[in-house]
Amino acid sequence: MNAYLDRVLREVHEQNPAEPEFLQAVEEVFASLEPVINKHPEYESLALLERITEPERTIIFRIVWEDDKGITHVNRGYRIQFNSAIGPYKGGLRFDPAVDLSILKCLGFEQTFKNSLTSLPIGGAKGGSDFDPHGKSDHEIMRFCQAYMTELCRHIGPDTDVPAGDIGVGSREIGYLYGQYKRITGGFRNGALTGKGIAYGGSLLRPEASGYGAAYYIREVLKHFGESIRGKTVALSGYGNVTWGTARKITDLGGKVVTISGRDGYVYDPEGISTPEKIAYLLEMRAMPVRGVKLYADRFGAEFHPEERPWQVKADICIPCAVQNEVSLADAMNIVNNGTKYYFEASNMSTEPDAMTYLREHGLIIGPAKAVNAGGVAVSALEMAQNSQRLSWTADEVDDKLKHIMSSIVENSVQAAQKYGLGYNLIDGANIAAFEKVAEAMRAQGLV
Ligand code: 2IT
Fold this sequence. Notes:
Layout: H1 3-15, H2 20-39, H3 42-45, H4 48-52, E1 57-66, E2 72-83, E3 89-95, H5 101-117, E4 124-129, H6 138-152, E5 161-164, H7 171-185, H8 206-224, E6 233-236, H9 241-252, E7 256-262, E8 265-268, H10 276-286, H11 294-300, E9 303-306, E10 317-319, H12 329-337, E11 342-344, H13 353-361, E12 365-367, H14 369-372, H15 374-389, H16 395-419, H17 426-444
Parallel strand pairs: 3-4, 3-5, 6-7, 6-10, 10-11, 11-12
Antiparallel strand pairs: 1-2, 2-4, 7-8, 8-9
Helix pairs in contact: 1-2, 2-5, 2-17, 5-17, 6-7, 8-9, 8-15, 8-16, 9-10, 12-13, 15-16, 16-17
The chain binds (2Z)-2-iminopentanedioic acid.
């Protein structure tokens, strides 16, 4: 490895020893940057890598809220404002008991590069809380969101930092968060959050955008190999927003989605998770008190495999859509044994490093998360644009822009890889294209 990359990677390890996910994300990006750093030795004197791996600002705060029985709870809230070189901080909020500083720094770092790839003017951020929304009443969710925003409101705004949803934060939570933001700050600055309901400035297609974008990205890549989604068997994991949007668009484009998964196991539906009723059921399951996908199997007579992951099922295309590090080396071996040709990460950092190495060595065509799922945040940026204009665009206008953004992500990734003689390499290409834009903006703005 290039000596400068090597030194900074060591320093990042020394400074963040307790943050495995963050270190994993930095290593993954650095592994692609050697040719770029060789070409730009001046980046060392600008401390560019030291700066790009250090969040500009990390906010950690106490959240106090009362449940329906009047019992007081304390949670930890976070916002990592990672990089604002190319636009206001932008990225989702995750409410999940697994949330910690390492996961959010990992996601904030990734978001910086993802947002750069969209070609829209958005910097990188991530936030959330270790609050578990599962099993909470609507009023408890509202009180928690209000308590969270009471602190966060002083750090965000349409031109500074624009949060959105992620795991555990959907349109209901964004509604409560925006209501509290408006109440405290005054004025109707709805560009301060995205993923809003349509009635108060949300964008059409924002709920669908991550999944539709993934399908458009996949369509472009398959086209390069003279293939199409039509007739392909597709394995998905998860059953949340990304799985839902991906299943819809893959089905529209003639593919057959045969798996979904939850914390309880996976469902194999050989008939295809393809009717509007089945796809809508994914949304219904999320609202149920029982967690997991067994409900789907019971309802539609599909196979349920408890405690297992869907990667044992033979599929032409595998698309993890659930959570970071959901694909292990054993899963990667199953995927290779099944003769799968295409692997696209739709969840952020879906793949453990040794699993990724295995898939790459076995010649799969791989699309990395920061490119594949960038459609979600891209439509968030389009929502910001609509809010600034005080106009709303039609679904077709948003969809056309999303298609164009996703194909330009594929094209820019391929061009960046080819510029450095790396061939058709979507992983290194995405990292390089994303890094070059952020690095150039940081260089131009001086030592800040
Ligand atoms: O991981 C992601 O890109 C998101 N959760 C969406 C972020 C956003 O600001 O729309």
